[in-house]
Amino acid sequence: MTFVLSKMSGFSIEEKVHEFESKGFLEISNEIFLQEEENHRLLTQAQLDYYNLEDDAYGECRARSYSRYIKYVDSPDYILDNSNDYFQSKEYNYDDGGKVRQFNSINDSFLCNPLIQNIVRFDTEFAFKTNIIDTSKDLIIGLHQVRYKATKERPSFSSPIWLHKDDEPVVFLHLMNLSNTAIGGDNLIANSPREINQFISLKEPLETLVFGQKVFHAVTPLGTECSTEAFRDILLVTFSYKETK
After folding, report:
1. Whole domain around residue 167: which residue ranges?
2. Cα–Cα distance, 214 to 190 (Å, whole number)
3. Would you tell me how many other CB atoms lie within 10 Å of the CB of residue 90?
4. How many independent structural domains does the chain possess?
5. Coil, strand or helix: which one is 219?
6. Whole-model pTM?
């Protein structure tokens, strides 16, 4: 299965790219990824993988895995990198920036899920159609599986916890799952650190946000009023340039 953006029902790639470049962010309906019945079954498989994530060593009440692909200029292939080091500068992540973070690799079953592979292709094709990504350079396509998990006494926080821009020029945030007892976990969009312009709640699996470096954004803490744990599962797909040696 391969997404062909120009043929997707009700989705004009040119209009969406223009909207993204104009506003600095974009909302994408989950219908884009769930047009085929088989994709609902594949989504369930992908969601189950989040229950096996190990705790994030760099933050409480989070579980996380990370893997990355290399997309070379002269090749159509996505090469799974042996390294899963992840670095953010202090400029963009005032909590965990300035250091190399190492996470457990994402399970092969998740990476080989046809729905996940199609999402990565979709994100890549969309990013390539913008005027933001330099397609003459080798790319790193990072996949971040994150589960935010909260109890009544212990909320879960994102990193960084407040308004920021990302190191990567284009970032896709796909909601994978959200427990119905969760409170918060909403997205804030801002033109400046002192001006919140939009509040967006992703509620249904595969509802998606795309961020560029034109806007600041943040995620509100996740909490719950119930005695059982609440969770919010996301898949981040990030685009950056391969390090030159």
Report:
1. 10-241
2. 9
3. 11
4. 1
5. strand
6. 0.90
